[in-house]
Design goal:
It is a single chain. This protein is an alpha+beta fold. The chain has one domain: endopeptidase domain like (from Nostoc punctiforme) (endopeptidase fold (from Nostoc punctiforme), Alpha-Beta Complex). It is built from 4 helices and 8 strands; from the N terminus they run H-E-E-H-H-E-E-E-E-E-H-E. The strands form 2 sheets. Strands 3-8-4-5-6-7 form a 6-stranded antiparallel β-sheet. A two-stranded parallel ribbon has the order 1-2. The radius of gyration is 25 Å and the shape is globular.
Length: 165
């Protein structure tokens, strides 16, 4: 009886140890993938922010695609071409149809954000950065960073699109 009880105890303890090792191993396998994704997003954000910083304050000129003047869609066209080697359509309305629709809660670095600033549909585009911020070419202030919750933009937001990933 004691031998049987010892064998059962041994089997239970061994099984518990094996299960706990399996759980730890699978958890450890998932962690680096999450860290890699986070690192990739950090690097991507730095590249986009560097691009916006390089052109920060560049004047707005309708139809311009840089390097010293931009309109909003020209800035996105140049950013995506230089950073991602992706050719976007020329206008904000045509860029609106690029990629796939995502919700505001899904926004991440590099997503396009669209606005209706003239009452006639999509008329302005920017690139999402983080924490509600986006880079764009403003008609009044040139290339700059704004917040989706700014008074001017919060009621003009139309949609977000993910061209990459």
């Amino acid at each position: 009886m004691t031998k049987t009880l010892n064998k059962i105890t041994f089997l239970i303890i061994t099984s518990m140890l094996m299960l706990s090792c399996t759980s730890v191993s699978s958890h450890q396998l998932k962690k680096p993938a999450n860290q890699q994704l986070t690192q990739q997003r950090i690097e991507e954000s730095k590249v986009i922010e560097k691009f916006i910083g390089k052109h920060y304050g560049a004047k707005y000129v309708m139809g311009a695609t840089g390097p010293n003047t931009f309109d909003c869609s020209g800035l996105m066209l140049t950013l995506f071409r230089e950073i991602y080697k992706v050719q976007l359509p020329r206008t904000s309305m045509k860029q609106y149809y690029a990629g796939r629709h995502i919700s505001k809660s899904e926004l991440s670095y590099g997503d396009l954000v669209f606005f209706n600033t003239n009452g006639r549909g999509v008329s302005h585009v920017g690139v999402y950065l983080e924490d509600g911020k986006f880079g764009h070419a403003s008609t009044s202030r040139g290339v700059m960073i704004s917040n989706l919750s700014d008074y001017y933009f919060k009621n003009k937001f139309v949609a977000a699109r993910r061209v990459l990933k």
